[in-house]
Amino acid sequence: MRRLLFSLLLLVLGLPAAFLGLAATEGGTRALLRLADRLLPAVEIGRIEGILLKTLTLEEVTYHTPEIQARSRRLALSWRPLDLRRRCLTIERLTLTDPEIVLPESGEAAAITLPAVTLPLRIELRALDVTGFVVQQGESRTVLERLSLAATLEGSRLDLTRLEGQMGALTLAGGGRLRLEDDYPLNMVADWTYAGEPSFQGRAILRGNLRRLELDHRFQAPFAVTTAGSIQNPLETPQLDLAGGWEQLAWPPDGGEWRAGAGRYRLTGTLEDYRLSLQTQVRGKQLPPTRIDLSGRGNLESLTFDPLTAEGKSGHLTIRGKVAWQPALAWQLTLEGRDLDPGVWRQDWPGRLSLTAAVQGALAPVLAVEADIETLRGTLRRQPLEAKGRIRYRKGDLEAKAFQLEWGGNRLHLEGRAGDRLDLGLQLDAPRLDRLDPRLRGRVSGRGRLEGERRRPRLTAQLKGQNLSWDRSLRIAVLNLEAAGHPDDPAGHLRLEMQQLRLDNLTWQAISLTGSGSPAAHRLRLEARNPQGFAVITARGGWRPGAAAWDGTIEHVPLSLLQPLLPETKIRGALTGRFSFRQSGEKRRATLAWQLEEAVLETATSTGAPLRLDLSSGKGEAALEDPFLQADMVLPLPQGGLEAHIETRLDTHDLEGRVGVRVGSLAPLQALVPRLESLEGRLQGETWIAGTWEHPRLRGRLDLTDAATTVADAGIRLEQVEIHATGTGERIAIRGGATSGGGSLRLTGIWNPQDSLANLNLQGERFLAADLPQAKVRISPDLRLHAKGGKMEITGLVRVPEARLVMQKTLLPGQEPEMVTVSGDEVILGRPPPAKRPPLNLTARVRLVLGEAVFFEGYGIDSRLSGELLLTYRPPLPRAEGTIRLVDGKFAAYGQKLAIDSGRIIFSGPIDNPAIDLRVRRRIRREGITVTLEVTGFAREPRIRIASDPPIKEEEALAWLLTGRSLKRLRQQNGGSGRQALVQAAASLGLGYLQDLGLGQIAQVEFEEGFLTLGRYLTPTLYLGYAFDVFSGAGEMLVRYRLWRNLLLEGRAGQTRSVDLFYTLETD
């Protein structure tokens, strides 16, 4: 008995010891796991590393049963077995690499019974890391890239302290608590992020149990949407009762092309039978605010609208029917609309339409769409519109059944089918094209029919048009089109005739295109006739799918056809040539050769002397060898010529070429610049072109050398004129210079034609800018020109070291004008009016500084000028700021030379109306009298005042100013009245010719506001006089005739003419 007890004790203590001994070694661990492998045939283990009591790694672990298959490439376990002594299973880390589970095809879901779980020990899972987790069920494959969690299970309570996962762009982070008994009550929170374009963020809170879940979810970015509600039986047949809403939505979130205002929705039922309602207001770039109200019923395959309504400024639309997305997108809908306004999308298409239609279709197995328009009625662009009929499309077949459209009195009828078999007819009668579009005019009518097979269609068409026009740029008085034939019909024909055609500035009396034969073998002839000539182009060839060939000639096309494009140029001669074209598959080959015959270009100049260029030897060639295109051209120029060679690729747009120009003498081009005389010099250049069509690069040089000319208007001779332009890639460097009168100008800068950018500098020293009797001016400029995108700006400084301005104009009347400017609206008979040039987009800010040798003589003034001005220009008027002073000046007036006491011309605004401040004093020392002539105000309305010290009468002051003597002394010397003496003094101003008018005895003298009026009554009713402005010298004859006691007729003749009738009424 004792031996039996000892044996049992040894067995009880030995087996655990043996197990622990085996688990503590790597070999023993393998033996134990191999034993388990035999005991559990569904489990297979490939490789074993480590020991069971510490760290264990298993590779290629699989689990196979008829219902489920599972495998993992690697399983690693690290745990603390000693914690079992305190009834705790502690797993430091459990790692699964590339686990995969294959589930059976989904069948009918069985009821799930939730087991109650209560463990006798505590389980701590401190880290579970799963990577590459795949769940496969039928065709469905779900990949979870990463899963990480930490949890504690004690009794029936499960605490998820950390839960993180990633599936594609979706990441999840959360945690919570779950009790594994009863209905598994839970409370969990999860934050999720979708890192796509755009990105999304949200938070979900789950409360309740696995029989009824309470969901609270919020979209946090890029917009806020809330959802709250319950889910019944989430593990079996989920019953949803969810509701949510938002305040503002935008899609896409960053651009906001579509926006939704405050909205709400509700979803109830199961996924196989749910009810959906939604209300919101949406708007977009081409959609005004529209109220959306949806009521529907659906499942996982389709949604039935019952109904969907949209209402806004664009009208009201009601949609009923069904949209399905399984197995493919398909729809069957009815549409009812009223007050529909297309003008909401296109402002020039306003309307008010009602619609009743049925639309159905599908994307698979082939695209099929059918629209049955019961009524479409209303107004469009203020014209009545009505349409009805059926249109159906399926797999390339189009069928129209009784489709009719009438709009603004224009009618279209379509009937038949276009598919593998063709039987489609069209009738058009549009007598009021202007009602379709205000830019369209005329009427057109026609009919056409398409018959036969798709591979061999036969077309017959007739079209007639009258008085057609488009937006005033295209006009056709008569249009006739007839066409008939099929691809293999040698008797096919085409005839297009247009009469009185005008395209912008181009006019043709008639254009006709005729063709005969089939597409595979045909002949074409194009004839065009206008007042300048007649052109013919013929071609013979054929076309079939993938291949084509044409050969043709250009027969004596008159160059005068280009006359409307060259309004200031006369061109004579003709162009002849030949061409060919071949295509095989994607490859094309073509050649073109042309030459000019008896070609003369004649340009009118302002002097009337035409410039004639003989271009008779001009010729060119072009060749296409797909994708390479090459072109050459040669044109003669005076003592030289223009040559060009261009090569390019049509696929990549690569560009390469050379342009050379040489003009041995500029003298034949004199007429182009009529303001220049004795033109000399040579022009030579060469340019290489590279880059692409979109971004060409120029490299080359253009040189104007040994040039000289006379500028007659300025009286100067320009010599040593040189301009050199050197292109280096995207920039062209410019430098040049000229001399005049011993002075010089220098020009430097750059020009970038791609960006329309230019920066130029103009500097000079004592350059003689004018050498005329009335003006001799030297300048020393330092100016900068900046131009970009059509805008120009001039800044800098212009010094005038020396100048003398002489104007013969004085204060005396009877003078002749020094020069006459021609009005801008002049018309010269026999010469076409010059083309209007658009105004320059120019601004300027230039400082003008006068030197020590600037003199002015004119208007009775002889003085040196000093000062400086800031000249600015912003369209439309120039402005100036600054002061010009008269220094050491004399003022010749009233037959006297008077010293200028002070003189200023003040600019502070428009340059043509400066302020004047001029004071001239005459001192009569022996009498102690000082007479002052003051000119103030503005140039357009100067004010003149004569003052004296001590104060005396204005007539007396005028006498002292005119003669240096008093009226009394004049009376004594002349034996007449004071007025007569003043008149004799006035005669010193050049008014002696009044004697010739019978005014030798002046009866009246008046002086007021700078005007001196002299005259007398020749009869009691007839007065003859002369009035003149003592400042400007302008005068006018004055005649008064009293018709009646209270009625006076007055006429004036001077710079202006007028006749006035005065009626005088005297009362007490």
Question: What is the topological layout?
Answer:
Layout: H1 2-23, H2 26-39, E1 43-50, E2 55-64, E3 69-80, E4 88-103, E5 122-137, E6 140-154, E7 157-167, E8 170-179, E9 186-194, E10 200-208, E11 212-221, E12 225-232, E13 239-246, E14 249-251, E15 258-260, E16 263-270, E17 273-284, E18 287-298, E19 302-312, E20 315-324, E21 330-340, E22 351-362, E23 368-380, E24 383-394, E25 397-407, E26 410-418, E27 421-430, E28 440-453, E29 456-470, E30 474-485, E31 493-503, E32 506-518, E33 521-530, E34 533-544, E35 547-558, E36 569-584, E37 587-603, E38 611-614, E39 619-625, E40 628-637, E41 640-649, E42 655-663, E43 676-691, E44 696-711, E45 716-728, E46 731-740, E47 743-752, E48 757-765, E49 767-772, E50 775-788, E51 791-806, E52 842-858, E53 861-874, E54 877-893, E55 896-910, E56 915-924, E57 929-938, E58 941-949, H3 954-963, H4 967-974, H5 978-991, E59 1004-1008, E60 1011-1019, E61 1022-1029, E62 1035-1044, E63 1047-1053, E64 1057-1063
Parallel strand pairs: 4-5, 51-52
Antiparallel strand pairs: 1-2, 2-3, 3-4, 5-6, 6-7, 7-8, 8-9, 9-10, 10-11, 11-12, 12-13, 13-16, 14-15, 15-17, 16-17, 17-18, 18-19, 19-20, 20-21, 21-22, 22-23, 23-24, 24-25, 25-26, 26-27, 27-28, 28-29, 29-30, 30-31, 31-32, 32-33, 33-34, 34-35, 35-36, 36-37, 37-38, 37-39, 39-40, 40-41, 41-42, ...
Helix pairs in contact: 1-2, 3-5, 4-5
